[in-house]
Amino acid sequence: MNKDWNTIEFLRHVRHDWLNKIQLIKGNLDLNKPDRVKEIINEIITETKQEAKLSNLDIPQFATKLLIANWENYYFRLEYEVLAEEKCQVTEDEVLSEWTTLFFQMLNQYIKPFADNHLFISIHSMVEGIRLYIDFNGILLDRETMSQFLQQQFSKQLTLKNIEISEEELVFEVWMNREQTGK
């Protein structure tokens, strides 16, 4: 899951994704389903706008982690939404990215493979830092271990709050405070 992505591999996946989208449009045009074509185009526009918002947050390691997550061999599908566009210039990108990588690995290890596992991350960038709302729906096999992982202190800047966990849902918030300058 921690593959080093070079430019060629990255572009190959992007090209493959775009080819799939074009084939979806073409197939629906061939089936004379213009309404479905419009829906697909609107979905592509929405997804592309979200990718742009994520890329513009100025946290490249974290953004890359989310952008390539569905190309990794995780047993969950990731969706995200950027709700505020305040740049994260002094947020510790590396800490957030490392925690996200560990979380993805832990989640992947303790969910049922090939089930309908869906992870949604809502990203709120604010002056004081960044807040993530994380919502997993699927089949969680080991709630106790996941709960222990989420209660560990990873960094002074990173705090998890409002953790709710059940067999089929995991919801919590991640608060990442901006670095204090002058330390």
Polypeptide structure, described:
The structure is a single chain. 44% of the residues lie in helices and 22% in strands. The protein has five helices and five strands. A hairpin with a 2-residue loop joins strand 2 and strand 3 (129-137). The protein is globular, with a radius of gyration of 18 Å. It starts with 6 loop residues before the first helix and ends in a 6-residue tail after the last strand. The relative contact order is 0.12.
What's the CATH class, please? Alpha Beta
Range of helix content: 40-55%
Tell me the total number of β-strands.
Answer: 5
- Give the rounded overall mean pLDDT: 89
Strand content: 15-25%
CATH architecture: 2-Layer Sandwich
Q: Major sheet: size, sense and barrel closure?
A: 5 strands, mixed
Strand order of the largest sheet: 1-2-3-5-4
Structural class: alpha+beta
Order of helices and strands: HHHEHEEHEE
* Count of separate DSSP helical elements: 5
Q: Quick one: CATH superfamily? A: Sporulation initiation phosphotransferase B (SpoOB), C-terminal domain
The unreliable regions are none
- Our measurement of the CA-to-CA distance between the termini, rounded to an integer number of angstroms, reads 34 Å
Gross morphology is globular
Provide the number of structural domains.
1
Which fold name corresponds to the CATH topology? Heat Shock Protein 90
Global Rg: 18 Å
Pfam families: SPOB_a (PF14689), SPOB_ab (PF14682)
Protein name: Sporulation protein
InterPro entries: Sig_transdc_His_kin_SpoOB, Spo0B_C_sf, SPOB_a, SpoOB_C
Organism: Niallia alba
